[in-house]
Amino acid sequence: MRLLSGTGPRTGLLRWLTRALAAVGGLAIAGIMVVTVADVVGRQFGVPVKGAYDIVRTLGAIGMACALPLTKAVKGHIAIEFFFQKLRRRGRALTDTIMRLALLGLFGLLTWQFVRQGLIFWESGEVTPTLHMPVFWVPWLAAVACLVTAGVTLWHLLHPGRSMMRTRQ
């Protein structure tokens, strides 16, 4: 239980993983910008970036997947407050618990499916169209991100009303 207690060293691991994935996602988005600018400028001089589409598509998937845990940790997701605020305290707590349990199931299912998809890509030798870069690892990275997001969701379930991490202002 110390894994999610909020003070144990393993919560530090969950926070570290969340931050590490956010850093990877941020680097992926920066990479998209660099490749896109280099490709646009290169095309003006007749030397486009080979495989720019492959790179941007892969980095986009990485950026989106790796942003999930931090977004969940800081409660940066979209919430529909109108309906939620109409409920009494007990109704809000029940709705919040049900939604978090549903999210746990969803992210568990996504983790499993991403692992399966990565195995399919591994076994088939799936590669990107232009660069012929193997892609099995992209769903596996998404699986790690979904698993960490499930961990954050479980932390929130056990610590209602608290944010696991704060954003820096």
Question: Could you explain the architecture of this structure?
Answer:
The chain is mainly alpha-helical and 169 residues long. The chain has one domain (2-158). Helices cover 72% and strands 0% of the residues. α1 packs antiparallel against α2 (52-73), α1 crosses α5 (137-158) and α4 (89-124) runs antiparallel to α5 (137-158).
Global mean pLDDT: 89
Run of helices and strands: HHHHH
Number of strands: 0
Which shape, going by the Cα principal axes?
elongated
Total of helices: 5
Distance between the termini: 31 Å
Structural class: mainly alpha
Question: Can you give the helix content as a percent range?
Answer: over 70%
Low-confidence stretches: 1-7
**Computed CA radius of gyration, to the nearest angstrom:** 19 Å
Number of domains: 1
Question: Largest beta sheet, briefly?
Answer: none
Q: What proportion of the residues form beta strands (DSSP E)?
A: under 5%
Could you outline the blueprint of secondary structure elements for this entry?
Elements: H1 9-44, H2 52-73, H3 81-86, H4 89-124, H5 137-158
Helix pairs in contact: 1-2, 1-5, 2-5, 4-5
